[in-house]
Design brief:
The complex is a heterodimer of chains A (about 130) and B (about 130).
Chain A lengths: L12 E6 L8 H14 L3 E6 L23 H5 L7 E5 H6 L12 E3 L4 H7 L2 E4 L1
Parallel strand pairs in A: 1-2, 1-5, 2-3, 3-4
Chain B lengths: L1 E6 L8 H14 L3 E7 L20 H12 L3 E4 H7 L4 H6 L11 E4 L2 H9 L2 E5 L2
Parallel strand pairs in B: 1-2, 1-5, 2-3, 3-4
Classes of the chains: A alpha/beta (about 130), B alpha/beta (about 130).
């Protein structure tokens, strides 16, 4: 594919809501591809991890043992694409016995009660 | 209103494609513009012309193709999702040395940029899927 470029010039605030496990279904991997394209199009990109989606950011994933691609490194590369606003719902993390130190990247914890306001702040919500 | 639609699930397995179709037809009937329907994940499977559902059932692919023809709705299949799942048009067949194509009339294969563009340009981007 040739490098795609968006000529419109308009910038909207995109929020990618990641709700699913990194493996088991392809949603996490393919949504990450969308995030990278969205960033390449110079849109304002934020990501929110809720429910099982918080596992996408878990350190020390080893999907090679089930012959699946380990794309968890890509989350660390998001910064290079100017994707720096990563939100994690605090309750989702705590319910799964995880803490911020278990995650691959720096994130901002957000209370469940603040998620609605975060969604309201954005123009386009893509939920995977 | 200028609408764009995202379909994330395959036909028959899941109702997302049916609901999206019904949404799009209702939107057009009530005077809205549908600038694009983007098919992602298993949603790209809506765009193979090789589907043969039982005769007493709806033909999901043909329904979309007819919609594209009658209302000029832009039906876009994500190229990366297509490559994983074996959805092929002439260009993809040549590029990836495939011996056949299966894309249905009215659909085209393009990049994820088309989804981002739809999000930017439409007043609302409406998602169908889990």
């Amino acid at each position: 594919m040739e490098e795609e470029e968006y000529q419109g010039g308009e910038v909207k605030k995109f929020l990618y809501v990641n709700r699913r496990l990194p493996h088991g279904t392809i949603y996490a991997l393919e949504s990450l591809e969308t995030v990278l394209i969205g960033a390449a199009f110079d849109q304002d990109v934020s990501m929110l991890f809720v429910d099982d989606g918080v596992y996408q950011l878990k350190k020390e994933q080893a999907p090679e043992s089930i012959e699946c691609k380990n794309f968890s490194k890509t989350y660390r590369a998001l910064e290079m694409y100017d994707v720096e606003k990563l939100f994690v719902e605090r309750e989702s993390l705590e319910e799964r016995g995880l803490a911020i130190d278990d995650l691959l990247v720096d994130v901002e914890l957000i209370a469940s009660s603040d998620v609605k306001a975060l969604v309201d702040e954005h123009d386009v919500i893509l939920s995977f | 209103m200028k609408l764009a639609v995202l379909v994330n699930e395959g036909p028959y397995q899941h109702q997302a494609s049916d609901s999206a179709y019904q949404f799009v037809t209702a939107a057009l009937r009530t005077g809205h513009e549908v600038m694009r329907v983007f098919f992602y994940h298993d949603g790209v499977n809506n765009g193979t012309r090789l589907t043969t559902p039982p005769q007493d059932d709806r033909h999901i692919q043909k329904r979309w193709s007819a919609l594209a023809q009658e209302h000029n709705v832009d039906l876009v299949l994500c190229v990366a999702a297509c490559q994983r799942r074996g959805l092929v048009d002439e260009g993809e067949a040549k590029r990836n040395s495939k011996d056949a194509t299966n894309i249905a009339p009215g659909f085209r294969i393009s990049g994820l940029g088309q989804l981002i563009e739809a999000g930017v340009e439409a007043d609302r981007l409406v998602t169908f899927g889990d």
